[in-house]
Amino acid sequence: MYRPKTTLEQWRILQAVVDCGGYAHAAAKLNKSQSSLNHAVAKLQSQLGVQLLEVRGRKAYLTEAGEVMLRRSRHLTQNVQDLEVLADSINQDWEPQITLALDLAYPRKLIYPVLRAFYPESRGSRLNILDTVLTGTEEAITQGWADLVIGGTVPRGFLGEPIAEIKFVAVCHPDHPLSAMSSPLDANELLQHLQIVIKDTGQSPDEKQGWLRAEARWTVSQFHMAIDLLLQGLGFCWLPEHEVAHLVDAGRLNRLNIKGSSFRKHINWLVHPRPDAMGPGSKLLSELILSHRQLNHYPPLEIKVGET
């Protein structure tokens, strides 16, 4: 019978050292001494006969072999965590707490009938509903801290069900200089004007979506703040059409027609970060969300994790 040479704790320590950028920060995060972390990683490398890290200056860097081993180790530790969560779910009839992460762009009017239907059946479960944006929504899935996630992307290795279609439009105040320019606008006309953007809630934001080339940018955390700034005649912003349609219709905001991008369309997906560990409350909430979706039927999206 095969006996493992290494332990899960050693792999978790290696992950912490890499994620924190060195032994000192990892020690603080894990509440362990730096020497114990050094010893654990050194022993791990010795047991495997493979150098995983090399220290240059005060920072630890992965070797090529270390990158491969670390990637595989993350699957290992995540699988163990999922097993433990599954055991907890099996041992209890109903979850005491359910966390639902909602991308800020998802129309809130769609979730309210879901919550009304869920409450009488919730059996006292505490429901945490948290706003997320961009990378923050992805992290809710990949880090597994939410039970259900509604967001604009489905990360690799996860399944998603499409539930809503969101259209983003560029808007500004009627008295803003952009409103007076000939339509359609060249995107270069936007460069010298203030752009209002919504803050990415991720721990490691990745600005890979949307147009972000304006010289001046102000970042806010909510749509209502962005809209208030626009109503003051400040800047332009891409916002969900359902958030600004009434203001455009009332003539309080102007919709910008930009050459090559009159609007951006996004699909919102319902994702189960840990499908095997879902309790009955999360399953019921998921079913209710799907029953209130605002789309024709789409097949579920599946993206395979590449094997190393």
Automatic annotation (TrEMBL):
SUPFAM superfamilies: Periplasmic binding protein-like II, Winged helix' DNA-binding domain. Pfam families: HTH_1 (PF00126), LysR_substrate (PF03466). Keywords: DNA-binding, Transcription, Transcription regulation. It comes from the Bacteria. The keyword Hydrolase does not apply. Signal peptide: none annotated. GO terms for molecular function: DNA-binding transcription factor activity; transcription cis-regulatory region binding. The keyword ATP-binding does not apply. InterPro entries: LysR_HTH_N, LysR_subst-bd, WH-like_DNA-bd_sf, WH_DNA-bd_sf. Residues 6-63 form the HTH lysR-type domain. Belongs to the LysR transcriptional regulatory family. This is LysR family transcriptional regulator. It comes from Bowmanella dokdonensis.
